[in-house]
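[09:14] KT: can someone run the structure on this one? pasting the chain below
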Amino acid sequence: MRLLFVNMKIAFVGKGGSGKTTLSSLFIRHLAAAGAAVVAIDADINQHLGAALGLDDAQAAALPAMGERLSLIKDYLRGSNPRISSAATMIKTTPPGEGSRLVGVREPNPVYDACARPVELDGGAVRLMVTGPFTDADLGVACYHSKTGAVELFLNHLVDTRDEYVVVDMTAGSDSFASGLFTRFDITFLVAEPTRKGVSVYRQYKEYASDFGVVLKVVGNKVQGQDDIDFLRAEVGEDLLLTVGQSDWVRSMEKGRPPRFELLEDANRRALRLLRVAADATYELRDWERYTRQMVHFHLRNAEAWGNERTGADLAAQVDPAFVLGEGVAAPV
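[09:31] RB: done, structure tokens below
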């Protein structure tokens, strides 16, 4: 029987140490093993996704940082859009319009050439992209949101089609609210430990995201018994999708010696299948007009707050009122 995939953008969030990177890497492996096309993005300044996908330290350190190639990304995505006078006037929230170049999951393009690297996994391969770490050179002169801005700009111009998934390991905590990045996904999996600190990020996320139609599901991690499950259910209610406990497979992976993925424990394999079912179920909720409207909303906010002053341009003029991003939109070559 042929498995049916849909096209999804999926975020994993949670406080530092919650296990969001581990769970996002397992989900990426699960999708790749099932034959889906996957772009994996590490949008956390503390870069661990490459290692979780099996890269050694040297390979992970050699991954090209999107934040360091922002000029190239801007120049390519701008295309022939007449509303954008130059790549220098593009900011992280700049929306696409007529003439902009859009990107797909499977296609070759200069952004992937510069910023993505293939990672071979059991039964398949994925494209891995990383925002890049916060370095000593950034101290006192840069905000790490300028680095994650490369991811937001990329997602603003991404049109994914069937059999494709984009999985993003987000920055820890609620820092993604500094921009519109948290609205770029079909579903967000919030990884929470069964502790007061573990659910505090959930409350922040739930409160802020409620006005933007964000689909949020909680994955309880490091659960040791029924008492932990009861605690999470009492704190997050129906948003609790599933819980996972300790894993010998994960412990081996974290030591750099992962067994074959097919040997992952049955309970964790069932959990990954449930994550995919939950993600796929949101496909019918896709609203490209709302998606585009939210892009414009955050762009105008950023333009007024700092963008116009920094670029010396009226960034509101970049908005193409007739343009709606969607699967039927053709990208210029």
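[09:33] KT: thanks! The radius of gyration is 19 Å.
[09:34] RB: yep, looked fine to me
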